Amino acid sequence: MTGPLEDLIALLQLERLEKNLFRGESRDIGSPRVFGGQVLGQALSAAQQTVDDRNAHSLHAYFLRAGDVNAPIVYDVDRSRDGRTFTSRRVVAIQHGQQIFHLAVSFQRPEQGVEHQDEMPDVPPPEDLPDAAGYLPAGEVPEKLSRFVSRQRPFEFRPVQTPAFLTDRKLPPRQQIWFRTVGPVPDEPGLHKTLLSYVSDYGLIGTATMPHGIDFTKANVQVASLDHAMWFHRDARIDDWLLYDCDSPSASGARGLARGEIYSRDGRLVACTAQEGLIRVWSLAEMRRQSKNNGNSKP
């Protein structure tokens, strides 16, 4: 394992404080707040540590407050139900005495049943595509983008199209990206799922911005995850190439909806995701009005 990957795996394992209480640290990935995928992966890890011999098959989460990168996060697991086939857990993430995140996750005893799936889209293989950093514009790159895209990461990304946040062209709301960890991961299915949930938050809501030509280098743009849902259909290795096929059916009311399907290299549908996010683009007049209101507000 390489440094960033080894660090991420340790980050997702958490410190156990009590039977149902866990604590995790955070890492700065180049954004001003805790990365949502980190909280999602840590919460799933906390829930997994209270379940035996069953696999997570679905999760539903809400992001309530922005996380502080410089403070630990406490995860409180509620053992909602232990049935004969299904097990339910609810996880609350707490920071500075406030709830910042909720997660409901369901586990199932392995069973056999009917099976079908969507077909994997026809896209170039990852070997024919450049790394995400190769899409950075020539010349001077805005610090806001360079810090996020060019830093060393535990995952390798090979976008099929120019990533949404690197262009202000109006494009159809669909994108695909190949990804995998930068090194091998131990043979622990639960770990592969926590890593998959972590990376599933990368770029998903950006799909909903593609038809609108939003320039992410400007200060008048605010995008944040509001919720995240995920369904695990089949086991797959996170250290082998996976294709994330994302689309957005709607944006309205300062919110956008994005959906994703994750395929293994051999075409198996591994997981599906859905996420609604906040998308705000202020005019210059609105920014001046907000700045004036903030300056006049009482503490």
Task: Offer a few descriptive terms.
18% helix; Porin; globular; 13-stranded antiparallel sheet; 299 residues
Q: How would you characterize this protein structure?
A:
The protein has 299 residues and is an alpha+beta fold. Helix 2 packs antiparallel against helix 4. The termini are far apart. The chain has helices at residues 3-13, 36-48, 143-149, 189-199, 284-296, and strands at 15-18, 21-24, 55-63, 73-82, 86-95, 98-108, 155-159, 174-181, 221-225, 227-232, 242-252, 255-264, 269-281. It has one domain (3-109, 126-296): Beta Barrel (Porin). The mean pLDDT is 90. The radius of gyration is 19 Å and the shape is globular. Strands 1, 2, 3, 4, 5, 6, 7, 8, 9, 10, 11, 12 and 13 form a 13-stranded antiparallel beta sheet that branches. Helices cover 18% and strands 35% of the residues.
CATH superfamily: Acyl-CoA thioesterase, double hotdog domain
Helix content: 10-25%
Cα gyration radius (Å):
19 Å
Question: What is the CATH architecture annotation?
Answer: Beta Barrel
Order of helices and strands: HEEHEEEEHEEHEEEEEH
- Describe the sheet with the most strands: 13 strands, antiparallel
* CATH class label: Mainly Beta
